[in-house]
Amino acid sequence: MSAPHGLRVEHLDEALGIHVRSPRLSWRLPAGAARQVAYRIETGNGWSTGRVEGEHSLLVPYEGPPPGSAERVDWRVKVWTDLGESDWSAPGWFETGLLSPSDWVARWIEPDDTTGERPAYLLRGEIRVDGPVERARLYATAHGIYEAWLGGARVGDAELTPGFTQYRTRLQVQAYDVTELVRAGADELTIVVADGWYRGQVGAVRAVDQWGARVAALAQLRVTLAGGAVVTAGTGPDWRWATGPVRAADLIAGERVDLRAEPSVWAPVVVADFGYDTLVDSPAPPVRRVEEIVPVAVTRPAPGRQVIDLGRNVNGWVRLTRLGPAGTRLTLTHGEHLGADGDVTTDHLRPDLPFLPEPLPAGMVDEVVAAGRPGEAFEPRRTTHGFRYVRVEGHPEPLGPQDVRGVVVHTDMRRTGWFACSDPRLNALHEAAVWSLRGNACDIPTDCPQRERAGWTGDWQVFARTAAFLYDVAGFTTKWLRDVAADQWPDGTVANMSPCPPAEGRDSPVAALNGSAGWGDAVVIVPWQLYRAYGDERVLAELWPAMTAWLARAERMARTGLWNTGFHWGEWLEPGGEPVDFAAFAAADKSDVATAYLAHSAGLATRIARVLRRPADAARYSALAGRAADAWRREFLQPDGRLTPDTQANHVRSLAFGLIPAALRPAVAARLVELVRAADTRPATGFLSTADLLPVLADAGHADVAYELLLRTGEPSWLGMIERGATTMWERWDGVDADGVAHDSLNHYARGAVVGFLHRYVAGIEPVEPAYRRFRVRPRRGGGLAWAEAAHESPYGRIEVRWDSEGLHVTVPPGTTAEATPPGGPARVLGPGRHLI
Ligand code: RAM
């Protein structure tokens, strides 16, 4: 292939319905080329860059005529490289959605339901198309979650649309190519709407009706006929609604379906005026059913109960294809763990919050009544469960693995990172972290897929960097950051979770729990990690107002330089450190954590300001970082290098954030080693510093101790989780205790950030310049490993690293440079191609 390839628009594989008028275009260099010297882009609407000198091949802005609504722009690119002038690439394209409120002729409609029930509603209208269709698009969204059917066919394969955003100000519209589905003549368009996040249970307290007490839908069909005429149709006053087989559907509680039910009487809809101002596109790929799992076992722990075991913990649902005779009522209870009796237990998943009178139900219970029709199946696509096991009650027949599939559901991100080594236990640990990411990327990055399912800022703050190695999370994270910004209070407070349900936000009884250091800092740290991984400057510019508002608040709260006011989660969940008395926990001083984060985030803001060419801001944030670091040192660092508090976390954080003067770093690192030894060579860190524990040890010359910790078994340790059967990472080090009893969530990625050590230290791949344009390959061998390898599909192409008895194998993608350090040898600069050094 002598042409550029892998064309992309923004961070999307399919840029249909975008609202960006100047989308950024990326390509990969022709095979065999090492360096680009110039490029030329041409578009179908007559724009040409001419020959542009330089190496830019990522996120080059389209600067042609601003496209109008529903406009498709084809583009192609050719490059000049060390091989000479290339051919034109195969064409790429992007297509805008409905860009202006005035493009909408469709009206918002609601089912006029006064029963107080929460079924999935069917909303139906007739559309008429006279003449042969050249191109047809459907633009759709809902209050609730929806899917569309045109004629008898499902539109698209996205699930849980329109996705979860801060609906108050941002509601995503999906665009679908329905050219193949629209027929000349009359047809029916049906929108099925269920509660979803909009009206169903959300957040830590599982409040309902957070954005409204009614569901609604908005859909507009735009058909271009063969002659060029455009026909538009959509939801409106002539539509009707009914209920169907889905009697109730809640993302957390579960779904109840009666397959015998015929649609109720069709009644007229109500037209509502929600306007079109909040409608946005999604920079992320949609949620899909991405994989199916064949169960590994079906057991019968008690009469009438069958337990299906998927063999691993996932997010999604099951598809059951044997439902029994008509009238059979099946109850499916999903869980992550089995009790001593071999039956599913969900006790550990019941939210037990200090201000609730009693723990809430765990939810995740589906119910289906069979109609006895041949070929019928149950697949509850309007709920999600975090589960490995399903208890089926009420089935008259024995079930086998052939009757069930586990359906894995998450944002359909591209996989970009892999790791393997000679120790299968580490490979299992890596796999568990990957599955925790997959289990918690359901349109938003969640803390866990079963209990709160909330976009906790702290959790993505600690994991985003590792996630960005494993999957392309650029669009997914950009989308979430827009909600973080939308949720920000006028005083700069960043909400605990985004999208933030009103029940947990500024006007809620728990308002004071928002704005914690380490959590709110996600607004600075996460964009920075995106920039490093993908080279995206626009996301930095877009989030700049939000990050500076956050820093301004912290600066105000840290009047003396020390951030010793406000509520903070602190290090959170150190072994044995769960808050017993929440009031005492909330009142406890966490200024060591908060001040360290202020220094760190202000330091990142300095670097971000430089990227954005804002020298005055860079100077300002550099001074702020310096003041916070000084205040931290005055309060927590003794002249001899002793720290208060004398915890692993404090040592890790201060080393990782560069708070320790160079002369004292060896002493602080040595004390960290002592603390690790005193803890029986085990981690004693919580949420915030676990990811940095092994890296700071390795950076300080204690890679041997880092490896010992990594390979430690028993509790607490990472491999201890694997030994006790974890297939995803646990929220607590004792997620399953020595007696086999489960505690809290068994699917929280936060502690899984340790696999970043596998990528960046064991395999040794780390970006030096954004998007891995220049990257380091510096494996730190140890732990008795005979070999290790990793690959990362970087924006420029695939990086591969392997070390073994032969040496260090490195594959450097076109357009990039590696600084590779072979065992014992000095670093060498490597250009594109394969190397063995
Ligand atoms: C828990 C969540 C989350 C964490 C917060 C502070 O309830 O599961 O992981 O960020 O607390």
From TrEMBL:
Gene3D superfamilies: 1.50.10.10, Galactose-binding domain-like, Immunoglobulins, Maltose phosphorylase, domain 3. Residues 764-824 form the Alpha-L-rhamnosidase C-terminal domain. Coiled coil: none annotated. It comes from Dactylosporangium darangshiense. PANTHER family: ALPHA-RHAMNOSIDASE (EUROFUNG), ALPHA-RHAMNOSIDASE (EUROFUNG)-RELATED. This is alpha-L-rhamnosidase. GO terms for molecular function: hydrolase activity. Its EC number is 3.2.1.40. Residues 133-291 form the Bacterial alpha-L-rhamnosidase N-terminal domain.
